[in-house]
Specification:
By secondary structure, this protein is α/β, with parallel strands linked by helices. The protein contains nine helices and seven strands, in the order E-H-E-H-E-H-E-H-E-H-E-H-H-H-E-H. Helix 2 links the parallel strand 2 and strand 3. Helix 4 packs parallel to helix 5. The protein is globular and about 55 Å long.
Length: about 250
């Protein structure tokens, strides 16, 4: 049996990925600060295993405790594959360098970069002792490869996540494991993160009007369509370890 772990599954893309996986008869563990009752009800209606676990991904000690427990429970079941979606992310702080506050800088790096590194490290470590394949999907951003004024911390954390993904893939290939790790850039979606971006100031974020237009002109992608693209790749495609996929190429294929 396959199991999926999704961080940030209570809303946005994470919620859509969880729903799609439950429809595919895959057991889901949702990790976020709050639970989504719709996911729970969907799992009950489908007769699927579903569990929500609360975790603050900006606290390293909590990450280690929560994910050690998850890993212990899952690997004990000897599943054929574990899908790990490192989806949770934060955009703040949106501000120019020189005007940044320390607390949101540290939280951004912890949630966007340190948490996925710690979680991936833990699961690949446990996988060495079993026959279970681990597939890691790190949700990144186009901002990882494009400098955006006001997003210096977000761009940097996502660029770091891309490099971590690519380096880990090389190492796993060298070890001749079956484990796969990919990056996934979901594009500009209609989510709470976009609301946060639109509520920023033009002084802090030069491209503010452009992002407001995305909403006004209905150019934002729906999370369900984006989730379908990445889930289809993982379940029915042949994802290339180390590659960073963009939603455009998945929707076009």
């Amino acid at each position: 049996m396959k199991y999926a772990i999704i961080t940030g599954a209570s809303k946005g893309l994470g919620e859509s990925i969880a729903k799609h996986l439950l429809q595919e008869q895959i057991a889901v563990i949702s990790v976020s600060r709050t639970e989504n009752s719709e996911l729970k009800n969907l799992a009950i209606s489908k007769g699927m295993n579903y569990k929500h676990i609360s975790c603050n991904l900006s606290l390293e000690k909590e990450i280690q405790e929560v994910f050690m427990e998850i890993a212990h429970c899952l690997f004990e079941k000897n599943p054929t594959e574990i899908l790990l979606f490192n989806n949770a992310g934060v955009i703040e702080p949106i501000q120019t360098v020189g005007n940044l506050d320390q607390t949101p800088i540290i939280r951004n790096i912890k949630v966007n970069l340190i948490a996925p590194i710690l979680i991936t490290n833990l699961f690949l470590s446990q996988a060495q002792l079993t026959n279970t394949k681990v597939t890691v999907i790190n949700v990144t951003s186009g901002a990882a490869v494009r400098s955006i004024e006001g997003w210096s911390v977000y761009c940097s954390s996502k660029a770091g996540l891309n490099m971590f993904t690519q380096t880990t893939a090389i190492e796993q290939a060298e070890l001749k494991t079956e484990n796969i790790i990919i990056g996934f850039s979901p594009g500009i979606m209609d989510t709470g993160m976009q609301e946060t971006i639109r509520s920023s100031s033009e002084a802090a974020f030069k491209e503010l009007e452009k992002f407001k237009e995305f909403k006004e002109k209905h150019l934002l992608l729906e999370t369900d369509a984006v989730a379908n693209g990445i889930v289809d790749l993982v379940l029915r495609g042949t994802p290339e370890s180390g590659r960073v996929y963009h939603i455009k190429e998945l929707l076009e294929s």
